[in-house]
Amino acid sequence: MSGGPQGTPRSMRPHIVLAGKCNAGKSALLNALVGQDLAIVSSTRGTTTDPVLRSSELLPFGPVVYVDTAGLDDTGALGSARNRKTRAALAGSDLALYTIHPARWDKDDLEQLASCATQRPTLAVVTHSDTTRPDLELLRELERITSRKPAVVSSTSGEGIWELRDQLAGILEAARKKGDRRLLEGLIGSKRLVLLIVPIDLEAPAGRLILPQVQTIREVLDGNAATLVVKDQELPWVLDQLKHPPDLAITDSQVVDRAAALLPPEVPLTTFSILFSRLRGDLPSFVESVYLLDTLPQGSRILVTESCSHQIQCDDIGRVKIPKWIRTYTGKEHRLEVTGGTIPEELDCYDLIIHCGGCMITRRQMLARLEEARLAGVPVTNYGVAISHMQGVLERVLEPFNLKGAARPA
């Protein structure tokens, strides 16, 4: 997934979602914030249909993604579908900008704003200040609801846009300091050696590594440690060359059984997918749910889902390998469905969901998916957790997180 001119992946950028009613000025505000005519601006209701994403630099904070959405009051032929996409974007947002037209606001705006503010950091933005000055009473009510001074802007004249950018940067910086998360948190220190075991198969892109591997390498280097990258076939040879065993080994889930067999038992081992499941989601609940694979009756419905869409290969992990491993491990025929990029709107028909590591989406987006599953009463596990369990090495790959044996049924 493109990360914009600076190359920062969208999954590592906070998502700022512009929400509000039709014709409240969302698209014009997006154009003003990024300094480009990106979104179509029109007085016609429902001009924005699917969410429009734009990666940008928000100084002095850094890289972000702005998301323009359809109006929450869209009632056209496709209004309900557009509304669902808007609410899905909001559910995965790190910061919501609720736009309000100073001459057209009503009680519904205040209720929608209050709903946004209870779920995530939210800022009210009063638009069209060049034609209508907002009422002081309205501004006070908006501040009361969000606990933040509302922004008053004109996307046409540029009034308040620089101040709004500064305000957004401050909100995101405060959130980053409060909840900053790292992929290898608590696992390595400086001057340590991390061994990365990376198979090169049909799914590996030509000439480069995949995103989880690149992010892991960068974080190791940022921590003043070192990486050694090796294919699984060369692992025995590399281990023979080392004077001392690595301080941590991270492997692709597809060769986790081979890595566990070859590495000395004292070397901490985990997988890229498990690392990302801890960073993006809820690793303990993934571990608790994986044991359902041992007890689900024949014909259970299992959803295998990925956060991104990619070209399907003949040995695709989600569509080919995981179903094969499930049949081999359980000895049962289940009804498996596979989705990429999105998850079905109705989840309560499934008995178990197996989700990828989520390297292409943000933590907020992953948590929103987990909340949907929780409300539907469907347990969720993770690719790396499920594969390691079926390969008989789950306790080994959980040792670095002090989760060994946790949640295993008695």
How would you portray this structure in words?
With 410 residues, the protein is an alpha/beta fold. Helices cover 36% and strands 17% of the residues. It has 14 helices and 14 strands. The strands form three sheets. The protein has a six-stranded mixed sheet with strand order 2-3-1-4-5-6, sandwiched between helices. Strand 13, helix 12 and strand 14 form a beta-alpha-beta unit. The longest helix is centred in the middle third of the chain and has 19 residues, at 161-179. The two termini are 42 Å apart. The model is unreliable at 1-6 (pLDDT under 50).
Mean pLDDT over all positions: 88
Structural class from helices and strands?
Answer: alpha/beta
Q: What is the element string, with H for helices and E for strands?
A: EHEEHEHEHEHEHEHEHEHHEHEEHEHH
The Rg value, from CA coordinates, equals: 24 Å
Helix content: 25-40%
Can you lay out the helices and strands and say which pair or pack?
Layout (H helix, E strand, L loop, with lengths): L14 E6 L5 H9 L17 E7 L3 E7 L10 H13 L3 E6 L6 H13 L2 E5 L9 H11 L4 E2 L8 H19 L13 E5 L13 H12 L3 E5 L4 H7 L6 E4 L4 H7 L6 E3 H9 L2 H8 L10 E6 L10 H14 L4 E6 L11 E4 L7 H14 L3 E3 H8 L3 H5 L12
Parallel strand pairs: 1-3, 1-4, 4-5, 5-6, 7-8, 7-9, 9-10, 11-12, 11-13, 13-14
Antiparallel strand pairs: 2-3
